[in-house]
Amino acid sequence: MCLCPFHPDWAHFALGHEGRPRRRTLRPATHVRIRACLSSATLAPLGVTFLLFDGAAPALPAQRRDGSGAPGNVRRASRTRRGGLAGHAHPVAILILRYAKECRHVSAPQEICAKPWQTQARVRTVQKRTVRVLAAAQIVGGIGVGVAVSIGSLLAESVARSETCAGLARTAMTAGAAAVGVPLALVAQRRGRRASLSAGWLVAAVGGALLVAAAVSRSMPLLVVGMLLFGVGSATSQQSRYAAADLAAPPRRAQALSIVVWSTTVGSVIGPNLAGPGATVASALRLPELAGAFVLATIGLALASALLWGFLRPDPLMLSLRHHDAQERQESAAGTEAAPAEATARDEGPGNSGALRAGLRHLRRNPHAAFAFVTIVVAHTVMGAVMTMTPVSMSQHGTGLTLVGVTISGHLLGMYALSPVVGRLADRIGHLSTVVAGQAVFLVSAALSGMGRDSVVLMMTGLFLLGLGWSFSLVAGSAMLSEATPAPLRPGVQGSTDTAMNLVAAVGAGLAGPLMSWIGFGGLNAVAAVLVLPVLAFWAVLVRAR
After folding, report:
1. To 10 degrees, the CA torsion angle through 24, 27, 33, 38?
2. For helices 490-545 and 220-243, angle between their N-to-C axes, nearest 10 degrees
3. Is the keyword Transmembrane assigned to this protein (predicted)?
4. Are 485 and 493 in contact (CB under 8 A)?
5. Which residues, including other chains, have CB under 8 Å from residue 270's CB and lie 6 or more apart?
6. How many Cα atoms within 13 Å fall on the side-chain side of residue 1?
7. What pLDDT is stored for residue 160 in this prediction?
């Protein structure tokens, strides 16, 4: 049908066959959206204008006397209502005047802006400040986390005086990160991101101080406890990306999230290279050589905590929840019902356990949130298993430590350096499409790494693509998880996702060694490729459900 208001088809749309206005009740949500731009004071004069200048209006079809409803002879109305002008009322004028009349009955709370609240000037200002503060904290805190990744195993070997205990440091750190994912989320649920993230970095700083004490006293229990607490810093770094998405507008959510992920690049590059400066600090403080790097790490972690506590104001999650509650009240006044997940969260009460149970139910009931959950867990598991065994495989084939270090650096570059590009891509083509692209990158990486046992170039390329596939999956999956989850449930769902991600990745890294000794590095990459298939199958189900 032509939508031009002067086309004859408008007569059929606005009026019945007898020229009587159709009774259409506008929904409250329709009033809310339209009255963001128009008011009854604007609509009424516009309708009168259509009545005054209606000389060329189309004729209305008359109904046949037999009642068949087929158009008969064309006739024009010769009389006006209540002594009006000659001619008939234009259908557009009737619609405008009727709507102006109905608008008077719309209550004041329904007169809200049709644009998302994230586009308000104050919210945009707070969002920019939030991303800057999170990026700064991620840089200084990431340096401390990077120290443990490269030097933690050496410290464990030095304290225990045994090579068999070298892997204990990495295991304890991973276990610590997995154990505090949900507790950090629950603190954020009740106190906000500022309290959660600053407390997480502070606990990690205490762990760094314990590691320095363990190096001095050569205490293995103290080292294990210190590494467990140090793992809290890793979990805090991972949850910082969600804080960047709390106030982000939906079209830019992945981009905001990716900036915080990109900031980790600085820590991952500088942290492993603090052994030299740490030795200088240790010499000045008369500490063991490896303890100096953890002194610098402790300072960085404490600085990250202070930055977030002092400058992450207003709290992004609390501000998001306030806007969400205001929007919910306006929708309730308009007569619309809340989403089932949000209603469940209210029914559970304010307790942490109730919110967590509601979040887990949301993961089971929302297909897109479940898809994002599976994507993040699988991506982290595939990345951790292959990355852990790549240096071992390269060393077995005679590759020098320098090339091994360059390969790992390229892998970290793929993980973090291109995150802003991935975020823009995800916002442009969609989160779902970006996740699928990441799985394709994983498959290419597995093929190149599996066939590149004797080729350093293929191994470097495969590991770089492994990091890039992880970046595609994590950035797009995290943005999708935030978008598919109501604001009151986000902290619990996000914390559960990170906990599952770290636990499954730890199991995968532990099984990677026996698998490689059994089926080789090529077989390990084949298993990694098989792990990607459930994500692709889940994607096919979502596409078919559309």
Report:
1. 40
2. 60
3. yes
4. yes
5. 143, 146
6. 11
7. 77
The residue type at 308: L
**Secondary-structure percent of the chain, ordered helix, strand, coil, rounded to 5:** 80, 0, 20
Distance CA 193, CA 133 (A): 12
Divide the 546 residues of the chain into consecutive groups of 10 and give the mean pLDDT of each group: 43 41 44 42 42 41 43 42 44 49 41 68 92 94 81 79 67 85 90 95 95 90 90 92 90 91 83 81 89 91 95 92 82 59 47 71 93 96 88 79 78 88 94 95 94 84 94 95 90 91 86 86 92 94 86
Q: Closest by alpha carbon to 377, among 478, 265, 256, 490?
A: 478
Predicted local distance difference test score (pLDDT) of residue 335: 58
Note the pLDDT of residue 339: 52
Beta bridge pairs of residue 21: 15
CA distances for 134 relative to 142, 239, 420, 469, 519, angstroms? 11, 11, 15, 24, 43
Rounded-to-integer distance, Cα 77 and Cα 85, Å: 11
366-545 shares the fold of 120-326: yes
Identity of the amino acid at 32: V
CA angle 238/239/244 to nearest 5° reads 110
Domain definitions of the chain by residue range: 120-326, 366-545
What pLDDT was estimated at residue 39? 42
> What's the pTM?
0.71
Q: Is 149 in contact with 272 (CB distance < 8 Å)? A: yes
What single-letter DSSP state applies at residue 21? B
pLDDT of residue 267: 78
> CA 23 → CA 14, 20, 26, 94, distances in Å?
9, 9, 10, 11
Burial grade of 430 (CB within 10 A; 0-12, 13-18, 19 or more): middle
Asked if residue 314 has a cis previous peptide bond (ω within 30° of 0), the answer is yes
Position 478 scores a pLDDT of: 94
Interior/surface letters 237-250, b for 16+ CB within 10 angstroms, e for the rest: bbbbbbbbbbbbbe
Q: Are 275 and 344 in contact (CB under 8 A)?
A: no
Other C-beta atoms lying within 10 Å of the C-beta of residue 96: 23
Integer Rg of the chain from CA: 31
SS3 of 399, please?
A: coil
DSSP code at position 350: S
Look up the CATH architecture of domain 120-326: Up-down Bundle (1.20)
Cα angle value 372/376/382 (rounded, 5°): 140
In DSSP terms, 183 is beta-bridged to none
Instruction: Provide the 8-state DSSP code for 70.
Output: -
